[in-house]
Amino acid sequence: MVRSSIRSSRTRSIDNQRRIHANDRAFNAQFRYANNYIKTSKYTILTFLPLNLFEQFQRLANFYFLCLLVLQMIPAISSLTPVTTALPLIGVLGLTAIKDAYDDFQRHMSDSHVNNRKSQAVRNGRLVQERWSAVQVGDIIRMDNDQFVAADILLLTSSEPNGLCYIETAELDGETNLKCRQCLPETAEMGQNEALISEFDGEIICEVPNNLLNKFEGQLMWKNKQYPLDNDKILLRGCVIRNTHWCYGVVVFAGKDTKLMQNSGKTKFKRTSIDRLLNFLIIGIVFFLLSVCLFCMVACGIWESLVGQYFQTFLPWDTLVPSEPLGGATITALLVFFSYAIVLNTVVPISLYVSVEVIRFVQSFLINWDEQMYSEKTGTSAKARTTTLNEELGQVEYIFSDKTGTLTQNIMTFNKCSIAGRSYGDVVDKQTGEVIEITDEVDSLDFSFNPNYEPEFKFYDKTLLDAVQKNDPECQNFFRLLALCHTVMSDDRDGNLEYQAQSPDEAALVSAARNFGFVFKERTPNSITIEAIGRREVYELLCILDFNNVRKRMSVILRKDGQLRLYCKGADNVIYERLKPGNEEMKHKTQEHLNKFAGEGLRTLCCAYRDLDEVFFNNWKQRHQEAALSLDGRDELLDAIYEEIERDMILVGVTAIEDKLQDGVPQTIANLMLAGMKIWVLTGDKQETAINVGYSCQLLTDEMVDVFIVDASSYDEVQQQLLKFRDNIKIVNTFQPRTPEGNQLGASNGVVDISDHSIGTSTPPQPSHPPAVSVVTFSTNLMYRGGSLDGGMDETSAEFAIVINGHSLVHCLHPQLERLFLDVVLQCKAVICCRATPLQKALVVELIKKNRHAVTLAIGDGANDVSMIKAAHIGVGISGEEGMQAVLASDYSIAQFRFLERLLLVHGRWSYYRMCNFLRYFFNKNFGFTLCHFWYAFFCGFSAQTVFDPMYISVYNLFYTSLPVLAVGIFDQDVSDKNSILYPQLYKPGHYNLFFNKKEFFRSALQGCYISLVLFFIPFGTYYDALSPDGQVLSDYMLLCSAVAAILVIINTAQIALDTSYWTVFNHITTWGSLAFYFIMDYFYNYVMGGIYVGSLTKAITEATFWFTTVLTVTISVVPVLAWRFYFTDVFPTLSDRVRLKQRMAQMRSRQSQDVLRTPSARRARRSIRSGYAFAHQEGFGRLITSGKIMKKLPNTDFSFQLPGIGKFNINSGTNQVSKNTGSVTPSQESNSSARAPIQDLDTINL
């Protein structure tokens, strides 16, 4: 018993860990670890046919036609040849298989490209080239600078001092700032001695494969010693080696076991909501068909037993039928059941699916060929990588977007600044005194006088450069601070000075100082050297007070010429609280500039300094060392010590960095939100950065009542925060006054308080100012026929936003908390999830898919977005700077985020509108065509005799009526592309399936039934006992059938002509050409090929009776439908009707009135007083600098001491929130803020 329990516990421990011997393939092979071969394709040559057919026959229509084909092969019950079903079915299966094979071939090519990348593996003391796919767990491989990491690797040694290695993790978390990894000192001693490395025989015991990007636990057993391993020693697949000449590592996880692939998700078979609806409708139609067949079977049995048995000489029963009357009638009725199942099968013709695939295929080419979605900068056009989801683009309700590389360019530029109360950066027109908008046409300043300038640096305000060149002390002090207060490393490459920055923010600030003449040259653990206006200055570095998420600031303490000075930069509210009293005028002006910069979406930092006394500093230094060496509460003690010295500072100025948005992002987001779409930003970036970009792109606005922040670390705290936010929303919606239209009268400025971290942060609603400018609007009543646009929406009239941190999101996605989480987020207009892992992004998408049953779209540009793209109904990849992984996993690819507006509002809406029009018309014409057989059954003894010629039945959907409806499905448009974007609310019917749903299907079916009644009984009554003027008998079966067939084609042509909103040359050719083709084909078939209906149609059209009957039948069929449409268009016009009428009126007047069709401006200033602080920096680099570990060489210096700043990095500690400035300054409203009217009123028209 004891032995079994020990054995089971040992088994469990083995299951929860993996053991790896370096350079020992034989040992590692016994565990059958995954190799490094990557497979994202679905099929192989052997599995393609069975798997693809299995997938296709999951579509009920394909299975239905397969059963029908089997029935048609039985001669006793079939009156039609099996070819009529076999050829279309084989065509549909073949076309779909070719398309699927092509898509999978592209995936195979992508896999092959990745698997055949070259890597260098250590074999027997030398390097050999290996394909990525050949790398196995336990192998030691070499990676050079700027190379991708092939697998998850334990770092052994590197070219950098102390075993450091710099990596970029953009494809994992979207961040392009460098991260540092460090190997064990014991393994770092091997250097690049391949003989020693090939003899490395360490045993790694670590965790099993998982998807946690920021966690790794394990240990290394080597030379009878045990070394702990953590995430800082691991290089993950998808990372890129930066600023490191070479490094070696042992493969820990390979292929599908790597953390990148664990986060990638599975490729899923995606189908549109219309596909799912068609499957449901086909089941209903089949039951309807069976009911009609059952009725005909019973009626046939009754007729045969009462009447038919007496006419066997004229109509003999089949040889299979017994001669006994009752039994014969029963068997005949059973056979008739199957005969009618075949005759009436055209109610769901196979050509429906052929047409649907053709329409989708051509629509995909229209997307590919759209020149307005072509990026000249990259030479990239939009591409539909799938042909099955086009109409789903017109029904998107939730958009999940990455931030870095998708909304932003991830390029930080020094845009503006404020120094000593004076703002710099705006270019003012000397004649008008107005600020000039900076475009590509505006010339930037010439910095070529500076030998260290960077040609790509651009700044436009000459007053700042003049001030620096005139030795303005305030400006020089400002740039000297930027050149000294940072953790940037310098590197001389081929005579060029290059910077290695941990964050793009710091790189932008140090670069700005460099170009203005204050060049950071080099650093040692205890000195910083700069060149200030050509003069070399060396400062003794005494201490770095490192940045972290709680402090929101960093400081350096320097000594030069016996003078001690502390330089500090950080969030405005943090710095203002620590300023020395006095100089209120400068603080007031700087605060105004801060508000202005934040209002423009710029990322701001405040800069300050303090001169220190030597005695005070020495005393402080002693206490700092004691706190740094403390084992209990070291972080808290250090924060308290930092507080003592970072006070009574003097304000120097403010920096304003622009995190450049992609072109047109604010405009695109504004229009998509007007179209009723909810936009969620899921990013791996930090909270302040995500919030700042949210304001920049107008996802967050100052009109919002509140911006909630969920940042708790435990389940109970997250639950408490969500409950508080839900109660806040209820209070606001219950007590806040509303306008008659339902819009909020009051809205807060969106400021988020940081006073209480434990229970969440929010601000109470505050009254806001009314809009300064009104926009001409025409109507607020936007009701669409078939349902209100407001029905079933969870949106409240008050606008809220919520920001969720990654560690809190773990608890929000817990099954017991997800309902509360949904209750809160679904009432928010904007949702931002920061620090989210790739898997969390996918889980958020799945949560909405599962609970909202709404169409979701995910858009991203990096490998960290692949799982989200695969999880959403529609995946859109941006061919950006982070590789092509997102594009290869996507359904559609575009070059920039702004093209998403046209992809959805134009192509998506048109595709949905066209497909719905096509389906309504198709079911209408086929019910009208098929049910003629049913009405004729009452006059032919329910014998399954057809009304139409078998040839006509075979080609009716293929030739006579397919092309006009295909033209509608491909080219039709109710409004132009320009108006589709000008009036985004035209998109909303797609959210509620208003254009095609069960109700619309029943309307089409009933209209088809009505047309079949009119079509059969009017000609039947006309030709019943009819005579020509010369006495010839016209009551002939074939003549009646030919007349009904011709009138049916004419009715269909009239209907499609009335249903076409946008006529092209193709529409004219297909519509009128199909009508002419029918008469030509009928004559050719009957006269040339010897059809049995020869002469029938010729005889019919020579008589006035036919033309009178045609006019009467067409009129009675079409006029009620026209009257119905005219009534609703006149009394209950939709927005589409109004815009279409406006288009026609504009064409008639031959002039455009676009002055009242304004859309929101792409950029506007905000009135709020909020922080623009966002700094993508992380704690830890200060410790590396002052400890000397990061230095390549330590020069001999005369400095007597150094004081390292010691801090512990914890990503979950503290919170980062946008906050209200709480200084003694009373900020004023900006006078130059460009007010804008509410965008929700822009899209209503009343003519």
UniProtKB/TrEMBL annotation:
Q: Which residues cross the membrane?
A: 60-77, 83-102, 277-306, 326-354, 927-945, 951-971, 1005-1025, 1037-1058, 1065-1085, 1105-1128
According to UniProt, the name of this protein is Phospholipid-transporting ATPase
Q: So which cofactors does this thing need?
A: Mg(2+)
Question: Where are the compositionally biased (Polar residues) regions?
Answer: 1217-1235
Its GO biological process annotations read:
Golgi organization; phospholipid translocation
Q: Extract the coiled-coil ranges from the record.
A: none
Any one Gene Ontology MF annotation carried by this entry is: ATP hydrolysis activity
Residues bound to Mg(2+) = D402, T404, D861, D865
In the UniProt record, does the keyword Ribonucleoprotein occur? no
Swiss-Prot/TrEMBL catalytic activity: ATP + H2O + phospholipidSide 1 = ADP + phosphate + phospholipidSide 2
Q: What is its main location?
A: membrane
Gene Ontology cellular component annotations, sorted alphabetically: plasma membrane; trans-Golgi network
Annotated region Disordered: the residues are 1217-1247
Q: Which family does it belong to?
A: Belongs to the cation transport ATPase (P-type) (TC 3.A.3) family. Type IV subfamily.
Domain P-type ATPase N-terminal span(s) in chain numbering: 20-85
Residues involved in ATP binding: D402, K403, T404, E506, F547, K569, R603, T683, G684, D685, R835, K841, N864, D865
